[in-house]
Amino acid sequence: MGSPASTVASVRARAELASASDSDVSGSLEFASTDQGVRITGRIAGLKPGSTHGFHIHEHGDCSSPDASSAGGHFNPTQQPHGHPAQGQRHAGDLPNQTADAEGVATVDVLAHDVELGTGGSTDILGGAVIVHAKPDDYTSQPSGDAGARIACGVITRD
User: Among 36, 89, 95, 155, which is disulfide-ready with 80 (CB 3.0 to 4.6 Å)?
Assistant: First the structure.
């Protein structure tokens, strides 16, 4: 058995984040299958220095609308309530908030449990979207944590 986040398959993907809702936010994320879920790494730029933002996987790989509403709701194949990614019931797409540094850049390194990459199963996030929100996720408000406008969106595509 490998380390907790070792790569178990060569399945890799990426998402290029483009601004939404008239923001200046952009970024690049990489996704890799592990024996514990999917590791998401990368950078999100154009954020207000020191600000914290909701960060989620959404159900549709469609970032075409100006406000990214075309990405649909949080990825939730098991129909759970919204919640904290490390506690109890939650959407599979509920991820930890991301905080920008003094230059307005958030460095992402998240292990998304309960999702897969490129399997074709019900928890496969390939073809979905990643959204950065204007405000932090409060992890309690239903159905989406009161995280505000969608300020960046990227479709998860195979590398």
Answer: 89
